[in-house]
């Protein structure tokens, strides 16, 4: 069994993973503990999840065998730089939705200190799947890292031959479509709602794609965007950077980024039902 497993970042994904994970001790640090407004709530989450909550990455990483980095995409490299306490020979599983060149920058920081960096791409929504969510891993420590993830309790791990950045390339390019469809869903549904023809548009889409259930799909996509649009926008910034590094004009993905960011800025929990979500977004966008 892993002696000590540390979370760097303890948001939705980490909390979904936690129940299935096996280690003698599980520690966690999240930068929300640095903010007086969110400090107490985050420590309540630590206690509810049965983890040792700590107030610095140094404290969380001391003596750990493996660390799971689960921060927002824009904090991927910063988290690696703050991981000076990661013991030599310990594994740093970078599970963030970041561009290949961002992952390589983070890997250079970890490897320079004697850590073992593994590029991990989370290939489906974590909610409902937890530690059974599909993971794609790459890099020089991928095989050994996959064994450790399996020992920790993860159940769906695929090795991808190639260097650090290979797994994240798949994740980034896939997100062009996944997050782009969410943005198109919002644009289509908002327009139909404003025109008073939402049900007719959904019926027409269902007729074109039998079994797609566009009403349920719109509802789910908007729910994800309202709740996680800010985080998704940070990921899409990395997607755009990935595309540009490949010589591809990311204008569609830039528009997706703006749409995700606007939905996330609506704030609060997503209300139940598609019409309520559309009313919330419409009012927010008018402001």
TrEMBL record:
This is 3-hydroxyisobutyrate dehydrogenase. It comes from the Bacteria. The keyword Oxidoreductase applies. Keywords: Oxidoreductase. Coiled coil: none annotated. GO terms for molecular function: NADP binding; oxidoreductase activity. Residues 192-261 form the Phosphogluconate dehydrogenase NAD-binding putative C-terminal domain. The active site is at 171. It holds the Pfam family DUF1932.
